[in-house]
Design goal:
The structure is a homodimer of 400-residue chains. By secondary structure, chain A is an alpha/beta fold. Chain A has a domain of 172 residues: Carbamate kinase (3-Layer(aba) Sandwich), CATH 3.40.1160.10. Chain A contains twelve helices and 20 strands.
Amino acid sequence: MLVVQKYGGTSVGSVERIKEVAKRVAKRKESGDDIVVVVSAMSGETNKLLKLAGEFSQNPKKREMDLLLSSGERVTSALLAIALTEMGYESTALSGRQAGIVTNKKHTQARIEHINIKSMERELGDGKIVVVAGFQGITEVGEVSTLGRGGSDLSAVAIAGALNADICEIYTDVDGIYTTDPRIEPKAKKLDRISYDEMLELASLGAKVLQTRSVELAKKLSVNLVTRSSFNDNEGTYILKEEDIMEKPLVSGIVIDKDQARVTLRGVSDKPGIAAEIFRKLASEGINVDMIIQNVGVDGSTNLGFTIHQDELDMTRDAMEAIGASQSVEFDKNIVKVSVVGVGMKSHSGVACTAFDTLADESINIEMISTSEIKVSMIINEKYGELAVRALHDAYKLDR
Amino acid sequence: MLVVQKYGGTSVGSVERIKEVAKRVAKRKESGDDIVVVVSAMSGETNKLLKLAGEFSQNPKKREMDLLLSSGERVTSALLAIALTEMGYESTALSGRQAGIVTNKKHTQARIEHINIKSMERELGDGKIVVVAGFQGITEVGEVSTLGRGGSDLSAVAIAGALNADICEIYTDVDGIYTTDPRIEPKAKKLDRISYDEMLELASLGAKVLQTRSVELAKKLSVNLVTRSSFNDNEGTYILKEEDIMEKPLVSGIVIDKDQARVTLRGVSDKPGIAAEIFRKLASEGINVDMIIQNVGVDGSTNLGFTIHQDELDMTRDAMEAIGASQSVEFDKNIVKVSVVGVGMKSHSGVACTAFDTLADESINIEMISTSEIKVSMIINEKYGELAVRALHDAYKLDR
């Protein structure tokens, strides 16, 4: 079996941690698997380099930032290869360049374009454990590039795809993906299996574990993922193709998003075409609109509501002003979005009803609703957020 | 004028220091020169990485050590380029690979084989300040290599040679090369000019400034060197071809070597061929012999004396034992070697006599003597070391 393992910053955050990782890798090698290990920079290192650069410029050249930032992962890869060799396991460290990772030229946020797998294949063929510096590659003209946030995960997934690996294991300091945030609902349970699409919808639950970009890439390349902790031997959460999940749960998880704000425009009917104008303006300003509802009021005028990220509230206010809609607009930051996610919804009716009933039983008013094939999202007053999560978690029996 | 500047670890040891270096480089650029800057790792960084590797292995793989150690200079080069760009000077940072530095494959102690100057020439042609990560290159097959101690100096000298630069400026935290160690003789004066060969003989005086390998390379490539301080604007010491030094001083400097030990074999004549056997054995053990004297004692037997590095005393003792010479051998660590160095000796007689007279006047017994074209070395009792240096410094009027 060919395994790609990726260890994040906290997993390689100290000499002791790197030694633990080496033991884990060695044990896997002993079991007969071929292994490519992708490593992040030791925790704190990348921030240290960012801070250093910040001492010289608020807007440093991105090309030079990439040369700077790529050094952290090189250090970890060399140290892990040294540790493995010392333990008697033939091992070789490869920089992103040496691993054949070619990206586009968008420095600090590059995308992987292709991977020249020759050197990794040669080293694996020699029976070596291959340790790759994550987060980095080179452009077509040989400049060092980095992949942005979550870049080492992307490296691992892309390598697993290129090598046609059997599994890509993402090691962090948490056990996997939970049915909901355990800080809100202590009864939250770790999920054994989940589909790519569910994972994408549960993004905020997995934010510390695996970023959306990596899940999307894994889905595209059909890479089997598992997220596990490097601090224990617990089974993690597998992220697979939907058809590879035998028992599809009705609902996989409940997720809460506290960073939304609601915008309401009242009586927009006096101004024909204003809805189109509003969304055109918001798009041109790069403001992401999440949910949209439109309804006709009792007086025949139309109310238009939508949600945005709280960080974009000021930009949105300016945009509304610019199109002369500031009089009729209201902003509300005191809301949260609670979503119920599950592939089982596709084939089962009544999932959404259970959600509405549950919140009604708790006397929580639902201000907006939007649904997709595998998700029901509801906007409610933020003070009921945690209560709603716990009630829904109970209603769908996610603690069983 | 094309200038190659090299800044050592203390010169780039902090954010403030790097900013000072950027100012110095910018000022030079303003004067109309083209500049390539070669940088070391920030002081302490390389030792930090060595220590980290030491936590995993006492004998880490050299290939991986190179990947590890090369990161420090990459960081500095990126930071300096960012600083220069922020100040409005177009600048680009190049890793050893990007600068085209190709070495042999002796990892951690590689030798530069050639430099592909295309990318440096292109960047200079665009008017940019080129900042190169020192100490590193790549092998023919693309592996990262490092050049060993003083490697960044070697990078700078080799680049200056390849680009046919007008001058290679080596910046450290000292002003230049002195007539002798100022801690021994406070009247020691900074030398304005010195030949490559004198510099090689005065190696210990310049040890903190410039290593022998770099001087040898500069001599071979006819690179004009100057060593200066990056902490002030003092003129440094130029190291030039002998023919480029107009006024050749009789004596340039006095140097003391406290790390020698003397080995004496008495009555070796009883064993024919033993001298050859001894030196063959020492050579096979990799022990460096410096001075050798042989003289016939009053009783007709031969005494053989030689000096070695103190660190190799135990190895030498073992070697003597192995060839059955341990009975007749004496070891003396309480000696020093004091040398008088100057190209003027070639054309002036009497230089050595002055040295002998001077020590005699101080009642210092000379135990061994060796001379070369530009150097007179004397072994004396270590307790007279500093006295001898001061007396000789005076005798040759080096404080004028």
